[in-house]
Amino acid sequence: MDTWLQPFVEFAFMRRALVATLALALGSAPIGCLLVLRRMSLVGDAMSHAVLPGAAAGFLLAGMSLPALSLGGFVAGLVVALGAGFVTRATPQREDASFAAFYLTALALGVLLVSLRGSQVDLMHLLFGSVLAVDDAALLQIAGVTTLTLWALALAWRPLLLESCDPGFLRSVGGPGAAAHLAFLVLLVANLVSAFQALGTLMAVGLMMLPAAAARFWVARIVPMCALAAAIGAGAGAAGLLLSYHTELPSGPCIVLVCGAFYLLSVLLGRRDGILPRRWRARLHYTA
Amino acid sequence: MMFPPPDSTLPMRPPRRCWLLGMLALGAAGAPRAQPTPAGRVVASFSVLADMAREVAPAGVEVTALVGPDTDAHVFKPSPADGRRLAQADLVLVNGLGFEGWIERLVRASGYRGTLVVAAEGLKARRGSGAHGHGHGHGHAHDVDPHAWHDPAHARHYVTRIAEALAARWPDRAAEIASRRADYLSRIEALDRRLRERLAAVPREQRRAIVSHDAFGYLGAAYGIDFFAPQGWNTHSEPSAATVARLIRQIRQQQVRAIFVENISDPRLVERIAREAGARVGGTLFSDALSRPGGPADSYLKMFEHNVTTLAQALGA
């Protein structure tokens, strides 16, 4: 029992890390599931580069102020997401191609802006936090974004879902396609940027995508998939923190690695799409 | 180690080549006028020594540092230009005690034949605590702590040795050097007195700090401050939960009042650790290099005052 509880009882930073991880898992797991459905699983990584020009601009204007950096990053991320979304809707191009084009442009602009000042200050480092250094502001921010995300999902679930699975159908029945798309991109950027700033890129993207990808192997329906992804993310968060505590390994990678282990397990054993269950089902089919 | 002085003054370069070099320098720097040739060139291994030398050197003598302000001597990579500056130098100053692992090779390679002044020679060196724990190879012999300039008494020793070497190199300027030296020594002494008074306001049992860079042993011995190394911070990469937990326990157990942990890459993490353990985040201490001109520690005196004042503020109630 000591192994499991003692670190959280003794140290506030462990409790904070746990709460932050749980909140992040709850909010970003459904977003991750929608991204998996849209075949946009790599967009989180792209966003971590897309925020750079905004952060650099924030730095040039306001100096070393974390709110300015975060706000700039949020605006830049939103511009990239909206731009890519606009091109996707206005042209026959695929969303992943327009995302790649926009984030690479943003990244180049960011590198340029950083070099303008010629400073050794590692903007990326300041912008991307660590799960062990969660302070009140970061905790409130994550919890706030999670609350917002869950409310928005609850209110606009059907259009969001349709827009992710079959945007053509949503448009054909006169649904609020553009509004749904916009709402989804805002949620995506808000979740990623707040998590970047509080927990770091790896944690933000890892906890969004890996549980969603793992959950896909178990269930077909989207709501159970979101719930399962959130549960996997939360479990991996707690397990990864304990692993880091007892083995002296860095916490962020530990948590994401536990997520990765869940994913591998799901690839093998997942009831719906897993390799072994499919084999068994095929064999049953033959013998029956 | 004192090498015998050169048996002749440096030969004058042929005027034609000098002119060519001057044109090159003009082209490179885009300067409107050629710089007047300095009366002499002193090269110090790092910024603290260079500042001391500037304080006592006679007018017209140019003092430069190989490892400039805000630069880590431990990762210094000499360039061919550094070799050229050494070769052209009239006097080379180093700290010694193994602080500059690279300097002897560099001096030998440059072909400099003059005196190599070792500022810390003759001092009683402290043993390093051995708990370096920050993963860079100092490369000092027998684990001697080389950061002797953080004790004002040792700084006076440095200044005296530098002034003697300058006077030996430029005997006709000896009077000027002696008066500048006396003035500088008295300023160091005055600062020392003032800072001791400042620190006296902090009770002795409160003077406990964790410092990530193991460089302040001399300061601690001179001013009665206990410095502890953060246990297990042996990495610049992302720390584990276990390391953070250990540091928090250490702060609580050793009743440390302030932490100065520079190699934790994330300032938010230091803040969290301090708050959870009931200590204070101290601020920046300058150890191996001065700050850039205009910074809070752009001279030895300002650096020393900044360090002790920062400590007194962090440790005081």
Short description:
The complex is a heterodimer of chains A (288) and B (317). Chain A is an all-alpha fold and 288 residues long.
Commentary on this structure:
The complex is a heterodimer of chains A (288) and B (317). With 288 residues, chain A is mainly α. Chain A has one domain (2-287): ABC transporter involved in vitamin B12 uptake, BtuC. Helix content of chain A is 83%, strand content 0%. In chain A, helix 2 (12-37) packs antiparallel against helix 13 (222-247) and helix 13 packs across helix 14. The longest helix of chain A is centred in the first third of the chain and has 26 residues, at 12-37. Chain A is globular, with a radius of gyration of 20 Å. Chain A starts with a helix and ends with a helix. The model of chain A has no long low-confidence stretch (mean pLDDT 88). With 317 residues, chain B is α/β, with parallel strands linked by helices. Chain B folds into 2 domains: 15-193, Nitrogenase molybdenum iron protein domain (Rossmann fold), CATH 3.40.50.1980; 203-315, Rossmann fold. Chain B is 42% helix and 10% strand. Chain B has 10 helices and 8 strands. In chain B, strands 2-1-3-4 form a 4-stranded parallel beta sheet, with helices on both faces. In chain B, helix 3 (80-88) crosses helix 4, helix 5 (152-169) packs antiparallel against helix 6 and helix 8 packs across helix 9. The A-B interface holds A 7, 10-14, 16-17, 125-126, 129-130, 132-135, 138, 241, 244-254 and B 237-245, 248, 265-269, 271-273, 276.
